[in-house]
Specification:
Order of helices and strands: EEHEEHE
Number of strands: 5
Strand content: 25-35%
Shape: globular
């Protein structure tokens, strides 16, 4: 299976957007390093994201662990041009 989210995107066109239930943290997924199947097998799987928090309201860009995002947030947007 090919990784359809393997090319880095600009922050205004993310592959997915994840948000905590209280709305304080938001992750804009700009690149995924592995397919979803491989992410499930790898506890250190990561995404390249822009993360907006109360401490950093304009966002910071960097790698985040997939398991941390999925444990604390829900997907509120998924680009329809990619299919996984």
């Amino acid at each position: 299976m090919k990784n359809k989210c393997g090319k880095t995107r600009k922050a205004d066109r993310p592959y997915e957007i994840w948000r905590t239930p209280n709305g304080e943290w938001t992750w804009y997924v700009l690149k995924k390093y592995q397919t979803e199947d491989n992410e499930k097998k790898n506890p250190y799987a990561r995404w390249f994201c822009k993360v907006v928090t109360p401490m950093c309201p304009y966002g910071e860009i960097g790698d985040v662990y997939v398991q941390d995002v999925k444990a604390n947030a829900v997907c509120i947007y998924k680009d329809k041009t990619i299919e996984e």
